[in-house]
Design brief:
By secondary structure, the chain is of the alpha+beta class. The chain contains 7 helices and 16 strands. The chain is globular, with a radius of gyration of 18 Å. One of its GO terms (molecular function) is iron ion binding.
């Protein structure tokens, strides 16, 4: 399939570095959109070990799966051959990138569950996500970012990370809390609580864009982000790949995620503080 990536100039990369997120219009042609959509359809019919249904009591459906490319050929092709790697390499200013993760999100009409405000910090170092819209997604349903939050020099954790036992969380919040990992912070001020952005939106500079199929968002993993449910009259599907460079390492609290992967039969051998390596994280050199 052809590579649809148009040149990403230095000014755009500087905007990404400053704001933490950018929108690229038409970066993925219809063939990539259709391929990812078919992969998601097949994945829902054939869930992987890490498949999640985040809205069991909701009138809508909110699904996701992780590392599905291992058994869904369409997602494998998208992850390894689409413009994603080239976009990531250009934005991370490196000739080679490692595919950290493939994932996707599906919200049907009526889904009330929102993706909570969070950032991705199980890996430390250069780390970006590429979020591709597969359906028209107006701003009111799109992923949102707190502009510049990746530059606050803070590692954020959900409230329950600090509070221990508490009332059961909604499924999606429980998932994000669990995948932040476990780490003894009793004698450390390493982490900060995720602020109540939703309750005080007026205090934050929030970025979002109207999206058409094939548009993509590129954002630094430590940019705080979240998204609402789906009040539209059509599905909203997003295909996501996450990328690191050769210097990114597993964070101390990332051991929990590695243990979960091993328990589910994934071939992964990562050490805390060590660079991301192994067959699950292939290296691509799209810029030569």
């Amino acid at each position: 399939m052809p590579n649809d990536t148009s040149p990403i100039d230095e000014a755009l990369i500087e905007t990404l570095d400053r704001d933490g997120a950018i929108c690229l219009r038409g970066a993925f042609g219809p063939e990539w959109v259709d391929l990812a959509a078919e992969g998601i359809r097949r994945n829902i019919e054939s869930p992987g070990a890490l498949f999640q249904s985040f809205s069991p009591n909701d009138k809508g459906a909110f699904y996701s799966d992780i590392w599905s490319r291992r058994h869904i050929p369409e997602l494998e092709t998208f992850a390894l051959e689409s413009p994603s790697a080239a976009i990531a390499a250009r934005c991370l200013r490196t000739p080679a990138v490692r595919l950290l993760q493939d994932t996707w999100f599906y919200k049907s009409p009526g889904t009330q569950a929102r993706t909570p405000w969070h950032h991705d910090n199980v890996v430390l170092g250069p780390f970006c996500s590429i979020w591709v819209a597969l359906d028209p997604i107006p701003r009111e349903a799109a992923l949102e970012f707190v502009r510049g939050s990746h530059r606050w020099n803070k590692l954020f954790m959900p409230a329950n990370f600090f509070e221990g036992e508490q009332e059961a969380l909604p499924a999606v919040e429980e998932f994000y809390a669990r995948y932040h990992g476990e780490f003894d912070i009793s004698a450390s001020d390493t982490f900060s609580r995720v602020p109540d952005i939703q309750g005080h939106r007026e205090e934050y500079d929030i970025l979002s864009w109207d999206m058409e199929p094939g548009d993509c968002l590129v954002f630094h993993a430590r940019t705080l982000h979240g998204s609402p449910g789906n009040t539209l009259d059509h599905d909203t599907r997003r295909m996501v790949t996450r990328w690191v460079d050769e210097t990114a390492v597993l964070a101390p609290h990332g051991r929990t995620v590695v243990d979960r992967l091993v328990a589910e039969g994934f071939e992964v051998d990562l050490a805390v503080g060590a660079p991301i390596r192994g067959n699950l994280f292939p290296v691509l050199s799209p810029l030569g």
